[in-house]
Please model this.
Amino acid sequence: NAGVTQTPKFQVLKTGQSMTLQCAQDMNHEYMSWYRQDPGMGLRLIHYSVGAGITDQGEVPNGYNVSRSTTEDFPLRLLSAAPSQTSVYFCASSYGGIHSPLHFGNGTRLTVT
Amino acid sequence: GIQVEQSPPDLILQEGANSTLRCNFSDSVNNLQWFHQNPWGQLINLFYIPSGTKQNGRLSATTVATERYSLLYISSSQTTDSGVYFCAVEGRETSGSRLTFGEGTQLTVNP
Model:
């Protein structure tokens, strides 16, 4: 099993550009989520999904969209990148919802200039 | 929302020393997990421990939910234990949806 796979590992965008961060898991986990990590602020939840076709907002959802068409994939879309979105993004999943150990991908480091 | 405070923010040890990391939370929780972020940025789940005590090798964790804290013990520390340790909780208010993370404890183990 590959676990949780994120692509790309690094990305540089110009202000106003859009892009999609990919996340895939092969563990048949129902719950998937996106976090961003900023210095001194820990990890903050952007969006999450409790199953295919179901998504909801987390703590910091503005500027991001998600969809969950399959159990395996949970892409994160930046609609119009801003310097404030410079961060490290982590995708995570768990079996049986949030009441189970959370498994993280290796992260995507995004810089918006 | 629920508040999570970790202490100490920074800790420097010599190899072989023991340490205790603390996580305090402001409200009742359904779920508490400990993570280690290594120097390469990878986040590894250490414990899923909403209550009680668990042990995994040199690491152990105890959660006293009624007193709203959890402790992570590292014994005979090794340089590979360096990194940031995060505590994360699922508060009753956001039950079923999210984990709220503390700001972490930066641990440095010197040879």
